[in-house]
Amino acid sequence: xxxxxxxxxxxxxxxxxxxxxxxxxxxxxxxxxxxxxxxxxxxxxxxxxxxxxxxxxxxxxxxxxxxxxxxxxxxxxxxxxxxxxxxxxxxxxxxxxxxxxxxxxxxxxxxxxxxxxxxxxxxxxxxxxxxxxxxxxxxxxxxxxxxxxxxxxxxxxxxxxxxxxxxxxxxxxxxxxxxxxxxxxxxxxxxxxxxxxxxxxxxxxxxxxxxxxxxxxxxxxxxxxxxxxxxxxxxxxxxxxxxxxxxxxxxxxxxxxxxxxxxxxxxxxxxxxxxxxxxxxxxxxxxxxxxxxxxxxxxxxxxxxxxxxxxxxxxxxxxxxxxxxxxxxxxxxxxxxxxxxxxxxxxxxxxxxxxxxxxxxxxxxxxxxxxxxxxxxxxxxxxxxxxxxxxxxxxxxxxxxxxxxxxxxxxxxxxxxxxxx
Length: 421
Ligand SMILES: *Cc1c(COP(=O)(O)O)cnc(C)c1O
Fold this sequence. Notes:
Blueprint: E1 4-7, E2 10-13, E3 16-17, H1 18-24, E4 29-33, H2 34-50, E5 57-61, H3 68-76, E6 80-83, H4 86-94, E7 102-104, H5 111-118, E8 127-130, H6 133-145, E9 150-155, H7 181-186, H8 191-194, E10 197-203, H9 214-230, E11 236-238, H10 249-252, H11 258-272, E12 282-285, H12 289-292, E13 296-308, E14 311-316, H13 325-329, E15 335-337, E16 345-350, E17 359-366, E18 374-377, E19 398-402, E20 408-412
Parallel strand pairs: 4-19, 5-6, 5-12, 6-7, 7-8, 8-9, 9-10, 10-11, 11-12, 14-16
Antiparallel strand pairs: 1-2, 2-3, 4-13, 13-14, 13-18, 15-18, 16-17, 19-20
The chain binds pyridoxal-5'-phosphate (PLP).
Pyridoxal-5'-phosphate is lined by residues 61, 63-64, 82, 105, 205, 208, 240-243, 286-290, 382.
């Protein structure tokens, strides 16, 4: 990755020397790049435009990284938001994302959260992406009380099986997400659902870290077919998020480019929807990982070494409470030293948490490391800080941003464990 390279044997990220940053700030920390974030958003949006899609709306999935300063950057570029809680709704609005660019997903929206969204001025949010009929009934009842019309999008369960980790797959009957076609079609007239609600869109989201787009194509085709069958004047078709990134070098050749992805979406919509109707709904996307994963790294310090016969452990000051993906999904993240060195030997990089799964990488080839040496975990901008916790009563780590002028800014202070209550 050109955003990470050695200069005079010292690793730079987004043109800033990481060791310099670590000399000024306590490890571990997340370090983000405004330049990469903006570039990723802009290429996604431009890709959609260039493939001929009508007025595309990119709703960044806040759950992948809800840091307010990062959301502000995306808001200024025109991004919308895909949110899954009242907290994320508040965050998106505070960061400057207009309500009419917000889609509200999630199977467990509470009455309080629904009312919060309905009470927003004007037409409110772009849509409630509804996952069950009971949810729709509640939204309609709340809208009635508030004398509002709720904008509804059904999330379709397209019954497809993408090739991804089972814990991040969402588009099949065995998953709690979305509504089956027959449930969508059989309930388009009932007044308990629709007296104060209006169907404005249809969505799918089949999972995350997708590298093979066969299931995506099928899901978008299902979206089109069911969309036509509703005979509703849909304002948008929401193709969800999920486009993957190359965490492992083996994934690089499989990785679909933005261009390939957008062409597939555009041609599928064209063939199965636009060619069959005069309706011209816009396309909504809900990317998270693809926008922010590569815009962040996690910087940690070696505490000490430990040898158990054949096993060489390098114990670092970052742990699974800071970055969960390896322990939660067995996810691979590349680990590289901040000081360039050719010497390599095999070791396990482990954190301080009292869990065997607190391991960032097994059998990695790294130079000999000693206390105080710096390592980075790559591609940690998505599902990093946002999934973190205070497990083992550790304070949450610092978040830093390199802005477009190469200036370093604290965008979220570290939590001191002595302040935890
Ligand atoms: C998590 C999620 C996304 C974003 O997924 P990525 O893999 O980060 O692109 C989009 N839409 C919904 C409904 C989600 O739950």
